[in-house]
Amino acid sequence: MTEIPSNIATVQAQASSARAKIRLKFTTAIVLSFCWAGFSLLLAERWTQDLSDLFGRPLALLIIYGIAIIPGFMNAFLVSSLIMDRRPTRAVIDKYPGITILVAAYNEQDSILSTLESIDKQEYPGPLQVVVIDDGSRDNTTALLAGVSYPWLTVLNLERNGGKANALNRGLELAQHDLVLTLDGDSFLYRNALCNLVGRFLSSPVDTGAIAGAVLVRNSRLNVVTRIQEWDYFHGIAAVKRVQSLYQGTLVAQGAFSLYRRDVLQEVGGWPDCVGEDIVITWAILRGGYRVDYCEDACSFTNVPERWGQFIRQRQRWSRGMIEAFKAHWPLLFKPRMSTLFIWWNLLFPYLDMAFTLAFLPGVILALFGIYWLAGPMTVIVLPLAMLVNYMMFLVQSRMFTGQGLKVRRNPLGFFIYALGYSTILQPACLLGYVSELFRTRKTWGTK
After folding, report:
1. Going by DSSP bridges, is the β-strand pair 128-135/99-105 parallel, antiparallel, or unpaired?
2. Beta bridge partner(s), residue 102
3. pTM of structure
4. Residues 311, 233 contacting (CB under 8 angstroms)
5. What does the longest C-alpha to C-alpha distance in the chain come to?
6. Where does the pLDDT of residue 68 fall: very low under 50, low under 70, confident under 90, or very high at 90 and above?
7. What percent of the chain has pLDDT over 70?
8. How remote is the C-alpha of 48 from its chain's centroid?
9. Positive/negative CA dihedral, 207, 399, 388, 308
10. What is the pLDDT of residues 52-65, one digit of tens each?
């Protein structure tokens, strides 16, 4: 394993002593969230009774908890945690260790060269090895890779497309360094991304097995579909990872841009052959007793789906990956650590997505005709807190952008649709993913 300089060891000791404060923050967030849930239940008493008269009390409680009480609890936890979150100190690095970057590429002719260019512009001050695994591409990717020459670049051409997990595992066999990064073939690294990510790893406790970088939208100006996703990556995904890392257990070190210890990757057997290889390997790392962190200022920009059909297939994939993670690593539900809370949250997602799709969306339609069985009380209980969550997400992300010399681009249309209508597409798409995994439909390496 990489030798830890003395100044970094000091920072790590300080991080260990701060765990008691983190546990206090966790307890505080839990208490505040239960208080909010209790307050919501009091407000919902009349609603519960009215709904019970229509559907019976068990179904009424399932509906109300699924579209109001549990989401309200989660939002309260996010808000209170973001308010208390303080990013840990990063040590000054005198000597950067060697890193291996694995780039699994399948039909990436439009972006692979700019991805390599962004790596070259990083000017990483330590030894660098980049392995591009061309996974049987059918476009011009192979020819483009043959025409470039970087001293740190190795290209591994696979004759047949075997999937992302297989490509990464083949690349891992060639890794020369103790730290291994994964980067998508259509990603573009922002300045200092590698130094920031490695610096965060070296400043983290010694039991850290992986660190997720910050993934943002590269093609956000293309159309309304990508504009909406810009807010999802900037707001929702980043904020959730930030809170999860505060409590020492980020649940997904995404394949698009993350760092791993090579010995930990080997210990868990590499990437599994499944749809959600990144979430499944992250849960394997957590199950092995390691921490998974998040580095909010190591930024990579990636292309997101440009059409709603592509977006729905992507989120179906992600949902299937979550179910795969539960199948492989269900004992995490009973592991005594703070991050276990988020595992239980994920267990509730199919129920919450079903409640939203089958109860809340029909309730909105009924409300248009003056029937407020479902939508009316829910908006009173949940929407104000959801607005506060969005504000807190924007605040913390804007500060990070300022620190990196980035500006939040004006995108009011995307935000309006993201805030008011995004879930009407997202949650039914996730529900389709759970059903697809239940019936074991065909799995492919398609949209990320």
Report:
1. parallel
2. 131, 182
3. 0.89
4. no
5. 72
6. confident
7. 92
8. 34
9. negative
10. 998 999 999 999 99
How far apart (Å, rounded) are the C-alpha atoms in residues 102 and 131? 5
Place of tokens 């309260």: 76
Closest CA to 254 of 194, 200, 181: 181
Q: Give a three-class secondary structure readout of the chain.
A: CCCCCHHHHHHHHHHHHCHHHHHHHHHHHHHHHHHHHHHHHHHCHHHHHHHHHHHCHHHHHHHHHHHHHHHHHHHHHHHHHHHHCCCCCCCCCCCCCCEEEEEEECCCCCCHHHHHHHHHHHCCCCCEEEEEEEECCCCCHHHHHHCCCCCCEEEEEECCCCCHHHHHHHHHCCCCCCEEEEECCCEEECCCHHHHHHHHHHHCCCCEEEEEEEEEECCCCCCHHHHHHHHHHHHHHHHHHHHHHHCCCCCCCCCCEEEEEHHHHHHCCCCCCCCCHHHHHHHHHHHCCCEEEEEEEEEEEECCCCCHHHHHHHHHHHHHHHHHHHHHHHHHHHCCCCCHHHHHHHHHHHHHHHHHHHHHHHHHHHHHCCCCCCHHHHHHHHHHHHHHHHHHHHHHHHHHHHHCCCCCCCCHHHHHHHHHCCHHHHHHHHHHHHHHHHCCCCCCCCCC
Apex CA 239: angle with CA 235 and CA 243, to 5°? 170
Q: What is the mean pLDDT of residues 193-205?
A: 93
| Tens digits of residue pLDDT in 2-50 | 554 555 555 555 655 677 889 999 999 999 999 999 988 888 888 888 8
Using alpha carbons, list the distances in angstroms from residue 442 to 138, 311, 317, 405, 445.
21, 18, 11, 43, 10
CA distance 426 to 44: 26
Closest CA to 99 of 149, 152, 24, 57: 152
User: 89: pLDDT confidence band, cut at 50, 70 and 90?
Assistant: confident
| Two structure tokens written together for 195 | 């130094």
CB atoms within 10 A of CB 391: 12
